[in-house]
Amino acid sequence: MKQVERGHWSNEAKEYYYAKRAEALGVRERGKTWDSRTQDNIGVNTTIIPSQQDHAGSLGVHRDTIARWEEDRKEIMSDPELAEKATTLEGYKEAKKLRS
What we know:
mainly alpha; 6 helices
């Protein structure tokens, strides 16, 4: 993350990082605040899923960029062959080309 903050990553590297981050943390849908998967025994939600705006702020890109990346990520992850390729930066770029 420090390299992202210093501006040492290309947009392709940021996009791949975003895809992995979104896969791990999720992306909050518009209008939803809490992750219903992480309720404790008394019904209090303890974890917030980042929104596209949150992800954009963390990566230093515009929310519209995240929206495009999210569309690509969803399409790649919905195809088992492409998802299998997308485990590295180079594989993600290849999967993105094959998707187009």
